[in-house]
TrEMBL record:
It comes from Bacillus benzoevorans. The keyword Disulfide bond does not apply. This is Glucosamine-6-phosphate deaminase. Its EC number is 3.5.99.6. It catalyses: alpha-D-glucosamine 6-phosphate + H2O = beta-D-fructose 6-phosphate + NH4(+).
Length: 255
């Protein structure tokens, strides 16, 4: 994997760095390299992980690196951002299934160090507060990986979510259900609700890595860079986080 040269950085503010890369492969490799370097520096890192299409390449590189360079996840802990409500963990559209399939089954992470909200429980409210406190008791998240929805959502925090929200139940936007229906047989199968870390939960992470790829995210990237901070565009709050790196590919920044 290549070394990231400083010339790839665009300083947005003191805190937010934008790394422009040529394509999805480079985005995935660069993100993997950042994560691997951190794991090598601190073996007991706590990672916040995301799902969706965007981080699939990153996970592929992490698996490849684990197999070839033996980066160890023995002492790494993970917390996922979100989970659909009402899907069984072995449903292949659950995020639990996704994480095992793309990452956990292929690295030496201990199952007891892997955490996702349980979206398939009778008391979802209770699950939300359990998950929120559990992250805190664990000492918080060192590095949170994020994707972005075309409407600016992060995790499943849809436009209009209060910035002070902690882990909570959300009703998914029609646009989000439509976008995610590509993984299901029909749109009717896409759950209407999910459990997600809140914006406040995400903002407590010590560092954030936001991945933005493809033409369908170009508008969201532009709005993030040029727009103001508003609950109508959840990702905009990241401008107030002290340590954010955005990795964006050409399809998303050059439209
Ligand atoms: C999903 C997830 C988000 C993800 C986003 C973008 O609904 N809940 O965590 O970042 O939407 O997904 P994708 O990477 O597939 O475009």
């Amino acid at each position: 994997m290549g070394i990231i040269s400083a010339s790839n950085y665009d300083e947005m503010s003191d805190a937010m760095k934008v790394m422009k890369v040529k394509n999805y492969e480079e985005l995935s490799k660069t993100a993997a390299e950042i994560m691997i370097n951190k794991i090598n520096l601190s073996s007991s890192l706590t990672l916040g992980l995301a799902t969706g299409s965007t981080p699939e390449g990153l996970y592929r590189y992490l698996v490849q690196d684990h197999k070839s360079r033996h980066t160890s996840y023995e002492h790494v802990t993970t917390f996922n951002l979100d989970e659909y409500a009402g899907l069984n963990r072995d449903n292949e559209n659950s995020y639990y299934y996704y994480m095992n399939h793309h990452l956990f089954n292929h690295i030496n992470i201990s199952p007891e160090n892997v955490h996702l909200p349980n979206g398939n429980t009778v008391n979802l409210e209770e699950e939300c507060s359990r998950y929120e406190s559990f992250i805190e008791q664990n000492g918080g998240i060192d590095l949170q990986v994020l994707g972005i929805g075309s409407n600016g959502h992060i995790g499943f925090n849809e436009p209009g979510t209060p910035f002070q929200a902690k882990t909570h139940i959300v009703e998914l936007d029609d646009t989000t259900r439509k976008a995610n229906s590509r993984f299901f047989h029909t749109i009717n199968e896409v759950p209407t609700h999910a459990v997600t870390m809140g914006i406040a939960t995400i903002m407590k992470s010590r560092e954030i890595l936001l991945l933005i790829s493809g033409k369908s995210k170009a508008e969201a990237f532009k709005r993030l860079i040029e727009g103001g901070i508003s609950e109508q565009f959840p990702a905009s709050i990241l401008k107030q986080h002290p340590q954010v790196t955005i990795i964006v590919d050409r399809d998303a920044y050059d439209c």
